[in-house]
Amino acid sequence: MPSDRPRYNFRSSRCRLPPISSRGNPTRSSIPKKLLRINNTALSLKSAPSNPETALRTPSHLPVVTSDTIKVTLPVPPSINHQYATVNGRRLLSSAGRTYKTYVGQYVWLALAQSPVKSSLHNRLRSGPLALSIRFFFASALRRDLDGGLKIAQDAVCEGLGLNDNRIIETHLYKHVDKADPRIEVSLSFIPPPCHSG
C-alpha cells in the first residue's frame, strides 16, 4: 500500500515537533541548533543579529488541524534579499532559504502527522483546489514588503505536506505589526465544490 508521506532526505528520528512550554509555546532549546541559525546565516550578509525582525522566533501558537484546513504559526521568512544567492551567475536558494524551508516542512508535516484527522485532511488537500491565507506580523510596517515572503512560505508548506502548490487557486495576504512577536500565521484549506441546487 503506497504511503502518502512525502519523501524527505532527512531522518525521521529528527522530525519531532518542539516540546511545548507551560505557556503553550515550543521551547527555544528544543529546536535543533542548525535551525536556530536560519536567519543568522542571512544576517551575515547585511543585517545585525540583534534585529528583532530577522531573529528566529519559535511558533507562538499550536497548530490547528481540522478535516479541511491546517493552520500553523511560523517564523517570519528571510527577506527576499536573503532568500537567494548568486553562484556562478545562477540565482539559487540561499543557505538561509534552504534551512527555513526544511524547518517549515518538518514542522508542518509533523503538525499533520500528530492530528487524529490527518488522513481525511491529507486526502482532501490532495484532491481539490486549495486556498492559502498568510498573515505577516512584522516588527516594523515599513521594512518588509507584503509579498516578499509569499513564495518561500507557500513552497515550504506545500512541500512539507507533499502537495503541488499549483493547486492553490486563491491567495490572501495580510500585513500586521507586532514588535514583540514577529511571525506568520498560515492557513491552507481545501475549497469544496460549489453546491448545485436541483
Describe, in plain words, how this protein is organized in 3D.
The chain has 198 residues and is an alpha+beta fold. The protein has one domain (13-190): 2-Layer Sandwich (60s Ribosomal Protein L30, Chain: A). 26% of the residues lie in helices and 22% in strands. It has helices at 33-36, 38-43, 80-83, 95-113, 118-125, 150-160; strands at 64-65, 69-74, 84-87, 90-93, 130-138, 168-177, 183-190. The strands form 2 sheets. It has a 5-stranded mixed β-sheet with strand order 1-2-7-5-6, covered by helices on one side. α4 crosses α6 (150-160). The radius of gyration is 17 Å and the shape is globular. The N and C termini lie far apart (39 Å). Mean pLDDT is 74; it is low at 1-56.
